Amino acid sequence: MSEETKSLNFIEHIIEEDLANGLAKDKLRFRFPPEPNGYLHIGHTKAIGISFGLGLKYNAPVNLRFDDTNPAKEEQEYVDAIKKDVAWLGYQWENELYSSDYFQQLYDWAVQLIKDGKAYVDSQSSEAMAEQKGTPTQPGVDGPYRNRSVEENLDLFERMKNGEFNEGEHILRAKIDMQHPNMLMRDPIMYRILKKHHHRTGNDWCIYPMYDWTHGESDYIEQISHSLCSLEFKPHRELYDWFKEQVYDYAKETYPMQPKQREFARLNLSYTIMSKRKLLKLVEEKVVSGWDDPRMPTISGLRRRGYTPNSIRQFIEKVGVAKRENVIDVALLEFCVREDLNKTAPRVMAVLDPLKVVITNYPDDKEEWLEAENNPEDDSAGFRKVPFSKEIYIEKDDFKEEAGSKFFRLKLGGEVRLKNAYIIKAESVVKDAEGNITEVHCTYDTDTSKKVKGTLHWVSIKHAVKAEVREYDRLFMDEAPDSHDGKDFMEFLNPNSLNIINAFVEPSLTEAKVGEQFQFQRLGYFNVDDDSKSDALVFNKTVGLRDSWAKQAPKQNQNQPQKQTNNRPAIEQIKSFGKKYDRLPDDARAKAKAEILELAKDVSYEDVEPLFNTSKKKSGTRIITMITLGVLLKNGLQKNEAINEFINTALEDKNKLLVEEAQQLA
Fold first, then answer.
1. What is the DSSP letter of 493?
2. E strand segments, 185-296
C-alpha cells in the first residue's frame, strides 16, 4: 500500500474503491445540503469541508442545495446567510439548487408509488399512528387505512394538494413493513399538509414532502455520487436506499446513477453549545447581542470575532474524518487561528490598562517617528512609522516599585527596552492621595545596543488614539455545559466572557477598516469590529498570544495508579456488565456505572443502536445501554426516532433502575 493510499480517510477509500470498480471519475458529484432554518455554526464547517474538499481533490462539482421542505421555519434570510458563510470560507459551488425545485417531480413520483401500491393516505391521529408503530423491541401493527384502494388514495392525495383538507387531517405514507426491525421503515410519512407560505414557491403548494423522501430523491435527481451525512442519519440509510430504488424504476433512463449514502462523525467542540434551540435562547434572553455575537459559535460570529477562513479550514483538516463521535478541544480551533494570524497579521502597539510614563531627560517639544517592522514573519510586510515623545503609556502590569529577580519588566532602578525605540530606566514614581501610582518618571538612553531582559510595548500619549476594545473569552466555563443532569446549561455561563476596555492605540490604526486583523504586541490578536467608525474605533479580541486556559486543566496525580489498557472494544467491555448489573449490591453497582460512563466515551452510536432490540427479559443489558446512550447524548448525539422509542419503552418498564436511567434522558 502506498503512502498516499494510507493517508486517505475512510470516505476517500470508499470513493477510490468505487473508481476502481468502474465508476467513471467524471461521474463524481457531491453536495452540501443545509436546511435554511437558521445560521450555520462551527459544527457545519466539517460537513462543508468534507464535501467541498472532495470536490477539490477529485476536481468534481459540488452543489449547494437548500433542503427547503418546511416553510414554517425557513426564510430567505437564512438562505442568504448560508451562501455568505460558505463563500467566505472560500468554497465555490457548481450549482445553487433547492429541493423546492423538485416539488412537482416528487409529487409525480409519489402518485406513481400510490398507483403501484407502495404508498397510501392515512387519516389517523398522530397519537394513534405512534401507538401502532410499536417499539424497537416490539413490531408495529397495520393501521385501518393501510389497505385503502389505489383509487381512493389517488383521490385523497390530489385533494390534499388542492387544499381541501386542514393540517393534520391526512398524510401520505410509504407502504413498506410495519413489522420491520428498523422503525424508520415502518410506513414512514412522505407528505403532510402545511398551509404555510414558502419563501420560494409562495402559496403554490399546501402539501410538503418530508425530509427522508425529499433528500434522497434530490440527490438522485442531481445524480450525486456520494451522499455524505453525519452519523445520526445512519439508521436512515435503509430508508434512503428503499426510496431511491423505487424511484429508479421510474427514471433510470433519465437518471442512471443511484447515489450512495455514507456517514461520518459530526464535529463536537468543548466549551461550546451546538443546539440551535439553545443558541436561540442565548439570543432571545440577550445573553449575547445576536447570532453574530463574537462569542457565538456561528460562522458569522467567528467571522466578526476575527477568525479567518484559512484558520477554520486548517482546523477541519486537523480534526479529520472519523467514524466515531468525539469531542474536539476548542483549544485546537484557537491554535489554528493563532497560527494563521501569526503569519498574516500586522504588529501594532496598543495599551489596554494605561500607566503614564514621563521620560524626564527627553526634550519637552521633541517628537520622533521611529521605524517599526510590520510583521517579522512576512518579509513583504514592510515597515511603518510610529511616533515617540516625552510622555508615553505602558501597561500598568508592566511596572512594579519593587520586584524580584524574575520580574523582567520595569521596576524602580531597573531598565527595559521600549519596542522599536529606546531603553528606559525607572527613577521615581508619583502617587495620588490613596497611594496609587499615577506616573513613573524615567530617563532614556540612546544606546540601544545594551543588553536588557525586558521589552515593553507603549503608545505616545500625544499621538494616542482612543479605542474601545472588546475583550472576549469563552462563553461557558464548563467543558460540556449541556451535559449535566438536572442543571440548565445557562448555569455555566462565564460572567467574564466580555470585558469592555477604553484603550489607547497607535495612530496608524485610524485607517483600519472593518474586518482587518492585527496583533496587539504582547497582548493578542484583534480585529476591527462591524461597529467601528473612523472617529470611534472598536476592536474585538480574537484570541490571546497563548492558550490561557491550558494552565487551568487539572494535572494528573503522579501518585495515582495508571489505568490498565484493555484491548477489548469498549462496547464489549460495557456489555459484560449487562448480565448482572441490576443484581449487584449498591456499592458495586455504583462502581460498575462509573466504569461504564468512562468506557462510553469510546463508543459510537452504531455500537449502541443494535442493543435497542434487546429482549425485555434482559433488563441489565437494557440499563447499561441506557447509561451508554446518555453519554453519547451528552456529547452531542441528536435524538432520533429509534432513540426516542427506546427511551419511551423503558419508561413503561417494571424495572425501577431502568426507569430511573430512562427518566434522565426523557
1. B
2. 189-193, 207-209, 226-230, 260-264, 268-269
- pLDDT, averaged across the chain: 91
What single string gives the DSSP state of each residue in 95-117?
A: -EEEGGGGHHHHHHHHHHHHHTT
Q: Which of 309, 290, 300 is nearest to 517 (CA)?
A: 309
120-134 average pLDDT score = 95
The three grid cell numbers given for residue 377, joined into one nine-digit string: 514573519
- Looking at the predicted structure, is the pLDDT value of residue 403 above 90? no
Q: Across the strands, what pairs with 298? A: 41
402-411: average pLDDT: 89
> Is-contact 517 527, C-beta < 8 A?
yes
Could you tell me which residues are beta bridge partners of residue 370?
A: 386
Contacts of 580-586 spanning 24+ positions with Cβ under 8 A: 580/620, 581/620, 581/621, 581/623, 581/624, 581/657, 582/619, 582/620, 582/623, 582/655, 582/657, 582/658, 583/620
Residues forming beta bridges with residue 369, ordered by sequence position: 387
Which stretch of DSSP H or E encloses residue 629? Answer: helix 619-634
From the list 148, 173, 266, 411, the catalytic residue is 266
- Farthest-apart Cα atoms in the chain, separation: 102
**Percentage above 70 pLDDT, the chain:** 96
Kindly calculate the radius of gyration of the chain based on its CA atoms and give it in whole angstroms. Answer: 31
Residues 6+ apart with CB under 8 A from 42: 267, 269, 272, 274, 297, 298, 299, 302, 312, 333
Residues facing 423 on adjacent strands: 417, 445
Is 276 designated active site?
yes
Give the burial class of 544: count Cβ atoms within 10 A of its Cβ; 0-12 exposed, 13-18 middle, 19 or more buried: middle
Burial classification of residue 587, based on how many CB atoms lie within 10 Å of its CB (0-12 exposed, 13-18 middle, 19 or more buried): exposed
525, 341 Cβ separation under 8 angstroms: yes
Distances (CA, A) of 79 to 39, 82, 85, 278: 9, 5, 10, 21
Kindly indicate the confidence band of residue 405, based on its pLDDT and cuts at 50, 70 and 90: confident
Q: Which listed residue (196, 200, 276, 323) is catalytic?
A: 276
Averaged over 194-216, what is the pLDDT? Answer: 96
Q: pLDDT value at position 549? A: 57
Residue corresponding to grid cell 460498575? 592
Q: What is the pLDDT of residues 130-148, one digit of tens each?
A: 999 999 999 999 999 999 9
pLDDT at 568: 76
The Cα 510–Cα 389 span in angstroms is 19
**Other beta carbons within 10 Å of 555:** 6
Per the annotation, the verdict on 303 as an active-site residue is no
Give the C-alpha separation, 412 to 330, whole Å: 41
CA dist 362 and 373 (Å) reads: 24
pLDDT given for residue 551 in this prediction: 45
Q: How many residues does the chain have?
A: 666
Please return the burial class of 385, using the count of CB atoms within 10 Å of its CB with bins 0-12, 13-18 and 19+.
middle
DSSP helix/strand/coil, 476: strand
Annotation marks residue 35 as catalytic: yes
Cell numbers for 323, please give them: 467514524
Whether this prediction's pTM lies above 0.85 is answered by: no
> Out of 12, 16, 35, 391, which one is annotated catalytic?
35
